[in-house]
Design a protein that fits this description.
- Helices cover 38% and strands 25% of the residues.
- It has eight helices and eight strands.
- It has an eight-stranded mixed sheet with strand order 3-2-1-4-5-8-6-7.
- Helix 2 crosses helix 3 and helix 6 crosses helix 8.
- The longest helix is centred in the first third of the chain and has 17 residues.
Length: 237
């Protein structure tokens, strides 16, 4: 795959580029990401048996919330994204945090050509629903992780419940996210994800739901994948 061909939607890149300067504001448009980040981090850390000392790739890293959190746990982190604005914010925040993350503007597909099997862990959080071909990203992540390594995804299920919660509720009623953040047709069913995983030589180990609790305004992990869910897979040898 040539460096000029990327599995990206320019409108999506522009949308997230516009909010890049507010990425690290815990009370702004990225507040939900700040609130779920500890849950994502612990799930990944526990799932791979501890991040410390591992080589980790964060695909679609945005402003670096998860990348920095994994680096803080002792991982050697590379973060990739196609948004120049988002990466600029991520690099700037390193000056504040004092952490080390290798940020690069490239796609998973292109990096997979250059660095196959280079990482112990690959994460791809809240990105699959924003690209034209999510299956291509899953295949690239499988190529990037070493045999026996761990791959983690987080996305939204294509169900009426997800439409009601993630679009009508979060974007229009509660205004937790900017209107137009999500497009329902791009949500990914677990069955679709598992099929792409099988084709990419990944074995699905677990699906875990991420649930928003309206009364407390907090998130929790638990059974049920009707809306947000995490997926943990292992690359076969």
């Amino acid at each position: 795959m040539s460096e000029t061909h990327h599995n990206v939607d320019p409108a999506e890149i522009a949308k997230f580029g516009d909010m890049a300067h507010r990425w690290w504001d815990p009370s702004g448009e990225c507040r939900p990401l700040h609130e779920i980040n500890p849950l994502r981090l612990d799930y990944i850390d526990e799932g791979c048996g501890g991040l410390k000392g591992l080589k980790v790739l964060d695909v679609g890293c945005g402003g670096g919330l998860l990348s920095e959190a994994m680096a803080q746990r002792g991982a050697q982190v590379t973060g990739i994204d196609m948004s120049e604005d988002g990466l600029g914010v991520a690099r700037m925040h390193l000056l504040e945090s004092g952490l080390e993350v290798d940020y690069r503007q490239t796609s998973a597909e292109v990096l997979a050509e250059a660095m196959p099997g280079a990482f112990d862990v690959v994460t791809c959080m809240e990105m699959l629903e924003h690209v034209p071909d999510p299956g291509s990203v899953i295949h690239a992540c499988a190529r990037l992780v070493k045999p026996g390594g761990h791959v983690f995804f987080a996305t939204l299920n294509r169900t009426p419940q997800a439409f009601a919660m993630a679009i009508l509720g979060a974007e229009y009623l509660m205004r937790m996210l900017p209107k137009g953040t999500h497009e329902y047709a791009r949500f990914v069913r677990p069955s679709e994800m598992e099929q792409w995983m099988r084709e990419a030589n990944l074995t699905l180990k677990e699906l875990m739901g991420m649930h928003y609790q309206f009364l407390s305004g907090t998130y929790r992990l638990g059974p049920g994948v009707d809306v947000n869910y995490l997926a943990h897979a292992i690359r076969e040898a």
